[in-house]
Design brief:
The protein has 264 residues and is of the alpha/beta class. The protein folds into two domains: 2-45 and 53-111, Rossmann fold (3-Layer(aba) Sandwich), CATH 3.40.50.620; 145-263, Rossmann fold. Helices cover 40% and strands 22% of the residues. It contains nine helices and ten strands. Strands 3-2-1-4-5-10-9-6-7-8 form a ten-stranded mixed β-sheet, with helices on both faces. Helix 6 (159-169) runs parallel beside helix 7 (193-206) and helix 8 runs parallel beside helix 9. The longest helix has 26 residues, at 51-76. The two termini are 24 Å apart. The model has no long low-confidence stretch (mean pLDDT 87).
């Protein structure tokens, strides 16, 4: 069983995230926990402490519960295992990170507004929440059918880390996968990519998985993103020192698929 944490608001991004995590639950036994964090800036605090403050906090939490309960109720028809959300007051990223660090989660999954802005993508991954993420995480841009996954190798990607973490997470799932090495260039120069791809294929087989398709693909980040847009999950590895404008990052920004990421 894997344990997944999903932050929720009463919005479309959360609805997409819940529907997607429920697809995962149909592939592998999954415990889904949801959390809603209601911001409480100093300007919102009422005058006084004690009973007044306590009553105000209870009211804030009750309002948040009412908002997200309707969302959970609507999605429960497709995913009966969805339970009541945890509702807390505080800074959103701080409270989510605390829960992740204390809850022994296998996976974090968040719905995001589809954006093709590299600056937004970099800023989100460099946030305290993502930069300190203790487990793999999925960013769901669009609700895609989870019928096939793609493992992405590229220059600088630790293939062993990618395959080990992916197979540990989805070890009992019946999910067809492909494995491609992406070269973000037009010219097809012979290099070590074929050998790295073969090593990754061998490691996959050792873990009980077989990639149905595997190859070295050439092209610009946007060309490859369009070429590989049919996948319901795209998995790769990133270094924590992100460089805005790197080819792999531009590819991840351009893809429509939900992205499963691990820190290298």
């Amino acid at each position: 069983m894997i344990k997944v944490l999903v932050p929720v608001e009463a919005d479309l991004a959360s609805s997409i995230a819940l529907r997607y995590v429920c697809q995962i639950a149909k592939l592998i036994e999954t415990e889904i926990l949801t959390i809603n964090v209601r911001a409480s800036s100093s300007e919102e605090y009422p005058v006084g402490t004690g009973w007044v403050r306590h009553t105000w906090e209870k009211t804030m939490i009750r309002e948040a519960e009412d908002d997200v309960r309707q969302l959970i109720r609507a999605e429960r028809a497709n995913c009966p295992t969805l339970g009541e959300p945890m509702v807390v007051l505080g800074d959103r990223d701080d409270e989510i990170l605390k829960e992740l660090q204390s809850g022994s989660y296998s996976l974090f999954l968040e719905g995001t507004i589809p954006t093709f802005s590299s600056s937004y993508f970099t800023k989100r991954l460099q946030s305290p929440l993502y930069h300190s993420m203790p487990c793999p995480f999925i960013m769901v841009k669009n609700l895609m059918p989870l019928t096939r996954a793609l493992l992405v190798l590229s220059d600088g990607v630790d293939g062993r880390r990618l395959i080990q973490t992916f197979t540990d997470t989805f070890k009992k799932a019946v999910l067809p996968i492909d494995l491609f090495y992406l070269k973000f260039q037009e010219k097809k120069d012979e290099g070590p990519e074929k050998e790295k791809l073969k090593d990754a294929m061998d490691l996959l087989e050792q873990q009980g998985w077989v990639a149905e398709k595997s190859d070295v693909l050439y092209g610009s980040p946007h060309e490859l993103a369009e070429r590989l847009e049919e996948y319901g999950l795209l998995a790769t590895v990133l270094g924590r020192s992100l460089k805005k404008g790197s080819p792999l990052q531009e590819f991840l920004v351009a893809t429509l698929s939900p992205i499963l990421l691990f820190w290298q």
